[in-house]
Amino acid sequence: MTLTFEPLDDRPGLAVIDQIERQRYRIHTLTPIALREAETDVFQYPVGDAVRIQTRAIELPTVVMVYVRDDDGAIAAEVAQFESETLPADDYVLDPLTQIKTYMRVEDTEVEVTVDSDRTRIEFDSPTDLLIGARSQHDRPAATVTTTEQPADVMAAVETFGSALKAHDPERSYPTLRGHPPALEIGDTLGIPADIDSPDTGVTLELPPDLASIFVAAPLSYYLGASLAPASEPRLVTDKGFTYSLDTARGFESEVGRTLKRLFFLDCVTRTEGFHQIDLHERAAIEPYVDLDFESLYQRPVAEQVATYLQVPYDVIEDHIPKWRLTTHIDPVPANAEQLPYVVDDLAIVRTHQQQRLNQASVPAEAEAEFTRDDVITRAASSETGTATAETDYVEPQAEDSLEQAWIGDSIPIGASKLTKAAFEHRLDRDTNAEDITIRVVQNDARMDEERQVVDDVYGTRDDLPFDVTVHDDLTTAELRTVLTTDAEFFHYIGHTEHDGFVCSDGKLDVTTVDSVGIDTFLLNACNSYNQGLALVEKGAIAGIVTLNEVLNDGAIRIGEAVARLLNCGFPLRAALTIARGESVLGGQYIVVGDGSVTVAQAESGTPNMLKVEPEDNGYTLKMITYTTDNRGLGSLIIPHIENIDKHYLISGNISEFSVSESELLRFLNMEEVPVRTENGLHWSTSLSLD
User: Fold this and answer.
1) Cα separation, 649 vs 429, whole angstroms
2) Which residue, 36, 482, 607, 670, shows the most beta carbons closer than 10 Å to its own?
3) Alpha-carbon distance 203 to 200, whole Å?
């Protein structure tokens, strides 16, 4: 029986139970029981709501680590894959590391936890009363702050971001304890709602009163719950008299980014003395080289922790800091302040470097000699539009040390995704309770049938996910309009676009003439699809992959297949394109428009990852590159299911290298389908030949 929670009373907040439901728990002999008063207070961590049921066993069709705690919060057992633990009758809180933070409490009960190759099972010695609590993902602004365009008011608005933190100790390095900052709107006066309660952490960032400085410091201010104050020189100060300059030889922007990474990383290490006293790989790696008493440090105020952390040389810990997910390059004008809360929610590094403007996106000469997705007739018909678009302002943000790059501004970015406020707002309206993942594939040119056949073989190959895939051929403008305005999680277009419309059998459909669209995400695998993709986002979509110019048909097929497989594996849109770009010489012609952190499906293991495999004398070297998602952000943990590996690792980036035998490698490759990068290109784990 699949668990369905029914409200047991009229209390608000039961939407969090819908989130538990999406974990796809299976509950045996389910019997709802009335919730006792104040039972949400019995967990060590905060929960938004709880239900009480009676059951003999709980089963998840996924592999997750399970912590079992006693009444004092101490860990009584931790169960990883291929392990089983039986605990004597007592009071326990079970903490499975699932996508939604869920806790289960039993009293005077014997508990058996088993994690095998593909599922997790929690069993009791008899039908047992079980209290299940969950903490809602605070993934949307709880309030809106209005600010004028004046830097002093923007500074006051950004200072409210720390009100979204759920903890003011090292535990805030867990993503579920970092809520979404309030939204910002530009108006005539500064207006901060009375119910916004900014913390007093004893940390202040003194900044020059200009938008560029405020934008760059916003993520650091949020993470520290820091106050902001105008000053001629940027620095961090605490109420204990500690000062730290943010204007160094590396430059203000670089120093702010390094400071955020250092404080965050050392919080991740220090929190191992907190609720989750785990064996963390990164702690073992740095502890011999830093003079820190983590047990004592965990108990000290934020201001004292910050002062201690900043005395640790950066180069001692640099190689162990997780690869940052995102660097956002922003044009520091007042209107762009409205996108700051969404960037800060991602804990992105912010840059405002002045970038070189380009007249157009460059196209390799190979495109002139091969069949592209824009034939001669199409290019001739669109020559007038093409001339106008050639004068578009392009920008190439400087690549930074992050997995992904993004741009906020009017120009068209090359090598980075283009963020828009509309995309973030549409994300908040997204229905995350849809039972099926609806995919619409449109092929409007029979010559491109090869890509259609490839994606037919990819979409819907996950037995654990309910896909609804529909393929359409040679649509008219009216038919395509219907597809675009019908609700769907993903739209994959194979055909031709021009700057002013999709090419259909009876003409062109310009998305700007459509009132609204129902698709969430998309891939427009056609030449010059940027304008139409941006219009889709403005009309209701969240994000999509588009092209800046002409693309070779063969390369487009390779990129289309790679993107389809990566999305099917649970990669966010922006990460999927970052990996897929390497499949074609024209990969740089593809960018993401909108909120590229969105996913179409969840990774089977919870964490999207790519492998690199290299042969060695007695086996193989396995490298694992992990990627964050909105559900598993920076600060999340992973244990690779490799024999004799029992340490936790911080995601994201390359977590480590492992030496494995051929049999161990084959078993690992067949656990789930993930991309594998070898010296011969990109492959897929379940079909990779070790030869």
Assistant:
1) 33
2) 607
3) 8
